[in-house]
Write a structure and sequence with these properties.
Layout (H helix, E strand, L loop, with lengths): L4 E4 L1 H5 L8 H12 L3 E4 L9 H7 L5 E3 L4 E3 L5 E4 L4 H14 L3 E4 L4 E3 L4 H7 L7 E2 L10 E5 L6 H11 L5 E4 L4 E5 L5 H12 L6 E5 L5 H6 L2 E5 L4 H4 L4 E3 L6 H9 L3
Helix pairs in contact: 2-10
Length: 262
Amino acid sequence: MPTKLVAIDIDGTLLHSNHHLSDANLNAIRETLAKGVRVVLATGRSYNSCAALLEQFGLDTPGLYLNGGTVCAADGTLLQSALLPTLAISKTLAFVAERDLPIVGFSHRESYTPKLDWLSGHVEKFDEPAPTILSDWTGLSIQKILLATDHPEKLPEIETPLAIHLEEHATVVRMSRTLLAVMPIGIHKGSALANLCAEWDIAANDVIAIGNAENDIEMMQFAGLGVAVANAPEAVLAVADEVVPSNNENGVAEALRRFVSI
């Protein structure tokens, strides 16, 4: 069966490490769209930070944002949303306060932090709006919480206790060597992609998912063909059906050439 949908992660996959979109990847996506194949962005970013990319590609399909916590139409209209429980939010805030860790909470159009720090500046580098300084998150609609350490070797010392602390309330996902995300239980890129495919009557076998990080694993497992770029960590490479060159070597363009036959 021909491919009907390609889901593509953005950072570390579609974009080069300097956040640049190469002509090779841009042209490959445009050629894929010209063949009638749907292209869906699947990212940990919010919709706000992806508007420019959508315009470059001319995408009119919904996208999966905040690790699948939101599904938004191309114009930003919120189509689906999964919220973190109030208790999960308060427990996460207490956890980071005890350890003086940086934290940012994301809703569909806004983000929040108790205080400005290096993580606040980090998310702005990904075209996210500057977070609103707010210590009390009571009543906020939060789909994803991002927390971090600037010492990669210490991430496991945070990840495991946090997962235990939030057990039965939320899921902890490793985003990179220094970043963790707190998500609603059962919500990830794979679940959002499955819902979108059900709506469009597209079988999983007709889907390609391309990613590089542990938050891409579920959508790669859902898709008929899961593709990892070569810069992915071992945990991601282990579940991939195929591996293409790294993000800096235009692995997305190579994947589309090989598996969509553009």
